[in-house]
Structures are given as C-alpha cells and as structure tokens.
C-alpha cells in the first residue's frame, strides 16, 4: 500500500493505492497525516473510501505538500565518501564526516519545489558534472516517528560542490533538483527497511549509459540515528521527509544530459522515473507555491 497525491479538477487529492485500486482518504493533504502520531495515522488510512472506478486516469504528484520540508543526509555510504573525496579540492572534509559522531544533514527543498513521478528534473546550466543520487527517503511525523518511506532523487552538481564544500546549497538546491515518489509506503507495510535493494539507471536515446546497484544495508549510520540528529533542537510541525544519502555515484567522467531518463527502483517501495531538463524557468516555471499541479507538463 502507498499513500499517494494526485491531481483532480479541483486540485490535489490524497489516497491510498494498493496496486489494484485507489481509495481516497478523508484528509486534504499528506501534511495532515504527518501531523498525527503513527497509530492515529494508521487509523486514518484504514478509513479510506470506496475505490475509484477502474481505468480512472490519475496524474501522480509528489507525495509531499503544505509546510512539510525535505532534508537530506550526506556521506552515509562508503561509496559516497569515496566519490566526494575524488571530486573535492578539500577531500579531508568528507573523510572526516564519514566517521564523525554527527552526521551531515542539509536542507533540500520546500514541498512546492519537489518534482513528482513523470515530472522533469533539472540540471544546472552552470554545472559541468551533474548526477542523480538515488536514495531511500524517510517520512517522519511531527514527533519524529518514522511512519513511511519513499524514493528520493537528490539531483546534484558534483563540479560545484567539488570546488568548495561551502557551495553545497548551490549544488543541491535549485529548480528541479529534488524528486520524490511514487508514494509513501507505511513502515508497517514494509518490514526490514534497513536492507532494501536499490537500483538506478540512466537511459540516453533508449540506451543505458549508467547503471548502479546497492542496498540500504550498506548505510554507515542507523536510520533512527539520522532522524534523531535531524530533530535535535529543531521542530517539524507538518512532518519532514529525510533522504538518507546515496550509495550510487557515477564515475567522474559521467554527467547527466538534457533528455536523459533516470529511473530509480527500491524493493518494496516502487519506481521513480524522471526526464532531465535544464534548470531554467522555461522548463520549471510551473513550480510555484501552489500545490495544484493538475496543469503542469
């Protein structure tokens, strides 16, 4: 079962999708669910309405809305530590944070900037090397409980971050740099989130130009530990999405190009597919603070 957001003529709606049927939920937003304690959230999901008619066309939206923020972790896999040191002119910073007591956490996106399934993702025109970063993302409620998981593509500029670690916000936060989806799988529906297979592929002209595989079992830090540090001296009244870092980083001679198709699969969670576009207003002018994406294209 997944919690999904989808477009209707009246705006965005929230439902549960069990793989066969879509059943609307008695809430107006995903944030309304993430305000609740886990047990109360589960009760609300159990009250889903009647299934929508078969073959009803649905435009999927990113499973995040309202004032819910997206945060991310860095250097949580050995491969990520190695890659960051390869690209950086101050490699020691990444070697040290990998084994440090405190993890690297950074703000990634407001809900309204997030791209959903099938929507374009962006690469900066001023970046020489841009890459997808396939990650398991945790949906946490307002009291810091992990209530679900989804897929995040933490699209990044390796060349900008490599110039100076202080350029991290520019490398990570821009138009089309964050994609989530397809929905949120409740944690009680997916035991063993600490050992999920993750695969990612980039297609160019229909041909695979990069492919990678890893598992959340290779995370250097515990999921509860990452959430604990995020909530230390911080509050998230509408819940938060925490992306847990990537274990899949292409070699330095690879960069995303306009028109590439990026597909990320996480076992038990689903697939997230997006096409790459330049991070310009021409392609991402539809990203606005209004949550209704029924006319986005």
Q: How confident overall, as mean pLDDT?
A: 93
Provide the gyration radius in Å: 18 Å
Query: Looking across the biggest beta sheet, what order are the strands in?
Result: 6-5-15-9-10-12
User: Quick one: biggest sheet?
Assistant: 6 strands, mixed
Order of helices and strands: EEEHHEEHHEEEEEEHHEEEHEEEH
Q: Determine the structural class based on helices, strands and strand pairing.
A: alpha+beta
| Strand segment count | 17
Which descriptor suits the 3D outline?
globular
Which spans have pLDDT < 50 for at least 5 consecutive residues? Answer: none
| Measured distance between first and last alpha carbons | 27 Å
Determine the fraction of residues in helical runs and give it as a percent range.
10-25%
Characterization of the model:
With 297 residues, the protein is of the alpha+beta class. It has eight helices and 17 strands. The chain has a six-stranded mixed sheet. It has a five-stranded mixed sheet with strand order 7-17-16-13-14. A hairpin with a 3-residue loop joins strand 16 (261-266) and strand 17. It is globular and about 55 Å long.
Give a quick rundown of the structure.
The longest helix has 10 residues. The chain has 8 helices and 17 strands.
Descriptive tags:
five-stranded mixed β-sheet, six-stranded mixed β-sheet, 17 strands, alpha+beta, 34% strand, 19% helix, 297 residues, 8 helices
């Amino acid at each position: 079962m997944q919690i999904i957001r989808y477009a209707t003529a009246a705006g965005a709606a929230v439902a549960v999708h069990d793989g066969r049927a879509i059943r609307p939920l008695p809430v107006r937003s995903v944030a309304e669910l993430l305000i609740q304690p886990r047990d109360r959230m589960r009760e609300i999901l159990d009250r889903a309405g009647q299934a929508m008619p078969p073959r009803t066309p649905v435009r999927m939206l990113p499973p995040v809305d309202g004032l819910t923020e997206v945060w991310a972790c860095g250097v949580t896999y050995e491969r990520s530590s190695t890659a960051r040191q390869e690209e950086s002119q101050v490699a020691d910073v990444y070697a040290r944070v990998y084994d440090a007591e405190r993890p690297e956490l950074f703000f990634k996106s407001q809900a309204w900037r997030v791209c959903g399934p099938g929507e374009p993702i962006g690469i900066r025109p001023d970046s020489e090397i841009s890459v997808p970063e396939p990650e398991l993302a945790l949906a946490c409620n307002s009291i810091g409980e992990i209530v679900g998981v989804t897929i995040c593509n933490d699209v990044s500029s390796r060349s900008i971050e490599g110039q100076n670690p202080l350029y991290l916000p520019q490398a990570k936060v821009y138009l089309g740099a964050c994609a989530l989806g397809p929905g949120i799988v409740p944690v009680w529906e997916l035991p063993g989130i600490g050992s999920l297979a993750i695969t990612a592929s980039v297609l160019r002209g229909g041909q695979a130009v990069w492919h990678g595989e890893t598992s959340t079992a290779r995370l250097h830090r515990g999921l509860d530990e990452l959430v604990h540090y995020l909530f230390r001296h911080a509050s998230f009244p509408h819940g938060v999405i925490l992306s847990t870092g990537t274990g899949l980083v292409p070699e330095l001679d690879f960069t995303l190009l306009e028109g590439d198709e990026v597909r990320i699969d996480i076992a038990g969670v689903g697939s997230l597919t997006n096409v790459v576009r330049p991070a310009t207003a021409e392609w991402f002018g539809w990203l606005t603070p209004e949550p209704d994406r029924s006319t986005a294209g």
